[in-house]
Amino acid sequence: MTQGWHLLRLGLALLFLRLFGERDPEKRRVAAIRRTVATLGELKGAFVKAGQFAAVRLDLVPPEAQPLLASLRDRVPARPLAEVRAVVEAELGGRLEDHFAAFAPEPLGAASIGQVHRARLHDGTPVAVKVQYPWLSRSLRADLAWLRFGLRRLGRRGGRFDAERLFEEFSRGMAEELDFEREADSARAIAANLAGDAQIVVPDVHPALSTRRVLTMTYHPCVPVTDAAGLARLGVAGADVVAIVARAYAKQVFVDGRFHADPHPGNLFVLDEPEAARRPRVLFVDFGLSRTLDPTLRAEIRKAMYALMQRDASAFVAGMERMDMIAPGAAPGVVAAVDEMFERLSGVDAPLGLGGAQVLSLKDQAKALLQDTPGVQLPNDLLLYARTMAYVFGLGQELAPEADVMKLCVPPLLQFLAEGGDGSKP
């Protein structure tokens, strides 16, 4: 099928959801979402990335669509070795064999913008080589134009979002993820920030074998953090994994302000090594989606946290306005919704007013606030910040329900609050 036909199908599916989604029977609504997701997968590239972007937009996407959109990361077919070879040789010069003693023909995994192959350097070092799809940069401009057109049309049909702002956030993020040199810089910076914790591992970047479209990093044998059988084989307790992951993200988010913003089982692993049972280590990979929060935003997050602990809805919403989360004139309705959300958290006896279960409850209530309250839209960086910590608490519930994840996060959180989130004292 031609791309034009796929785009027509996508447009019809999105139009159906916009016009009839709110009142249509659930089965038909889910079927329309499935058609949309299938078409995004067939369009590949920026459209798959757009679906993944939408999956985390709790303020825009209905709950039943989020897991279906998130599944796009598992639907990308691998490209043949000949295409991969062409990119590597164009980027690094010479032949593939000049740089690698061995290069696996089948990838470890394929994603929306590229795929990863195991390889071995001539000195014997095992590496993972991430290679960008050759057609992606050529099609990106046209794909983004179609996405902008579609967002504008949806916005004009009563959409409760700022289409232009949403497009700018997506296109900026897409450009950043396509720059593997930026990803390498992020990996090195986050590795330096976490260097004091021996149980956290970020693979070394091999700069001589890395460019904007090829990224070579040291390969480590490992198992996904959610692989129960793999963890059991290694003798690693889920509670130990949760403690390491919570420690790592709490420091990134609260202390460093620069963080790995794409936590999921395909990016977090436990190293498969003899010492794993006694002292497990967690491996972080894929730094294409990483974020640095500016000092002003971090200071506003700090104020919002104080308002949350004090259950002060007016102060919390004032912070939301300063963070550009509320449309003009919508604040009174948002105050009422936040006040109701805080009421449900009253009486909680936990560190800083929130325990692990309450954080997950707050996540669900915040999701409802974003989806049901007119005039609320999160900046994407702030949403990634919140989603990252929500993932940590969710991982705790999955691997070690008895673990007190909030307690693990308290030391770096207290440091963040004491410094005002911008390095200044309160």
Break the fold down into its secondary structure elements and pairings.
Layout lengths: L2 H18 L5 H18 L1 H11 L9 H6 L10 H12 L3 H4 L2 E2 L5 E2 L3 E7 L5 E7 L3 H21 L6 H15 L2 H14 L6 E2 L12 E5 L3 E3 L3 H7 L3 H19 L1 E3 L7 E4 L10 E3 L5 E3 L2 H15 L3 H10 L8 H14 L11 H17 L7 H20 L5 H15 L7
Helix pairs in contact: 1-2, 2-3, 3-7, 7-8, 11-16, 11-17, 12-13, 13-14, 14-15, 15-16
The best one-word shape is globular
Structural domain count: 2
Q: For the CA atoms, what is the radius of gyration?
A: 22 Å
Tally the beta strands.
11
Query: What's the rounded overall pLDDT mean?
Result: 82
Q: List the helices and strands in order.
A: HHHHHHEEEEHHHEEEHHEEEEHHHHHH
Class computed from helices, strands and strand pairing: alpha+beta
Q: Could you estimate the helical fraction of the residues in percent? A: 55-70%
Number of helices: 17
Residue runs with pLDDT of under 50 for 5 or more positions: 15-23, 348-355, 421-426
**Main β sheet profile:** 5 strands, antiparallel
Distance separating the two termini: 60 Å
Strand content: 5-15%
Outline:
With 426 residues, the protein is an alpha+beta fold. The protein contains 17 helices and 11 strands. The strands form 3 sheets. Strands 1, 2, 3, 4 and 6 form a 5-stranded antiparallel beta sheet that branches.
Report on the architecture of this protein.
This protein has 426 residues and is α+β, with helices and mostly antiparallel strands. The protein has two domains: 116 residues, no CATH class; 205 residues, no CATH class. The protein is built from 17 helices and eleven strands. Strands 1, 2, 3, 4 and 6 form a five-stranded antiparallel beta sheet that branches. Strands 5-10-9-7 form a four-stranded mixed beta sheet, with helices on one face. A two-stranded antiparallel ribbon has the order 8-11. A hairpin with a 5-residue loop joins strand 3 and strand 4. Helix 2 runs antiparallel to helix 3, helix 3 packs across helix 7 and helix 7 runs antiparallel to helix 8. The longest helix is centred in the middle third of the chain and has 21 residues.
